[in-house]
Amino acid sequence: MKITAIETKIVDLSLLKPIKVSLGTINTFQTLLLRIKTDIGLVGYGEASPIAFVTGETITICQDVIKTISTKLIGLDVSCLERIHAIMDSDFKGNYSSKAAIDIALHDLLAQQAKLPLYQYLGGGNDRFLIDKTISIDTPEVMAEEALRNVNEGFRILKIKLGSDINEDIKRLEVIRATVSDDIILRVDANQGWETTMAIKAINAMAELNIEAVEQPLKYWNLRSHKTIRNKTTIPLMADESLFTPMDAIELVRQDCVDIFNIKLMKCGGLYKAAQINAIAENAGYTCMVGCMLESWIGITAAASFIAAKNNITKADIDSVMHIKANGISSGLRFDKGMALLSNEPGLGINVEWD
């Protein structure tokens, strides 16, 4: 099965409401859809969903990168994943969201050719798992109201965005925990918003609030201070912005500064590299979460398929489609009361209103 054409399309994603994290507020968003056509008539879909203050990419950059790479991919067999990734990496350093779009579409095609849903093609046998729901930064009262609403909708895991003033952050968590029962799992994500002393104080203050993990408390480059925090607190730490590549995963293991890895397809370049990161983590004794940016159903279905395929991925943060309005993209994947349920349609099982 050979590649005959690679096409892209920019799509506006209307948010239900602005999303605020410590790095900034997202009011509007675009994503880049990609489709690969083949000589046997199958079409595969991918997606690049960059956030400039995380990945350093924009939609137009992704479109230009993909256009350049595509000229070298026409005529190649879809199964040549290693060769294709080598071409992409030799042409561009970084640009992981662009590479993820191509990689996801290739995996969609390979699974379709095998007549398997992507999660089974990747080796998985479990078609359902628990997911969390993200609560963006707001007043303690507003965040607590949203937390309770999510729990009443069936979610048992909440991801709480923090990373501003630590006293206000602690209050946010205290009010949320007082609002929801202790059996509701709370994860915290500071998005690099704290300094070392602040983080130690905040995390120790959270020790009585039954917090599962704290994600990326410090700047991505500050691994040494992450280890300092880890040695002076008891809540497990998770790396997010510190982890893009398999080489980053090796360095995190070497530094022994976190407990959990957060893999995002848009940060690492797709499923091929995500599998490498997960293998490094698993063999070094670390578990993983798979997270997301603001992908549509294409990127989220790919992420969900990867989660379902890998036993070492024990946490799922793939709720971006719950924060955007309908956009002409549908998937066999569905969410029900805090559970992700994958379909048995071949590949991603994606339908796109392209033209």
Structure description:
This protein has 355 residues and is of the alpha/beta class. It contains 13 helices and 18 strands. The strands form 5 sheets. Strands 7-8-9-10-11-12-13-14 form an 8-stranded parallel β-sheet. It has a 3-stranded antiparallel β-sheet with strand order 1-4-5. Strands 6-17-16 form a 3-stranded antiparallel β-sheet, with helices on one face. α2 packs across α4 and α10 packs parallel to α12. The chain is globular and about 60 Å long. The two termini are 24 Å apart.
| Distinct helical segment count | 13
Largest sheet: 8 strands, parallel
Strand residue percentage: 15-25%
Number of strands: 18
Q: N-to-C terminal Cα separation, in Å?
A: 24 Å
Strand order of the largest sheet: 7-8-9-10-11-12-13-14
| Form type | globular
Q: Unreliable stretches, pLDDT < 50, 5 or more residues?
A: none
Instruction: Supply the helix-strand structural class.
Output: alpha/beta
- The helix content is 25-40%
**Taking Cα atoms only, what radius of gyration do you get, to the nearest Å?**
20 Å
Overall mean confidence score, pLDDT? 95
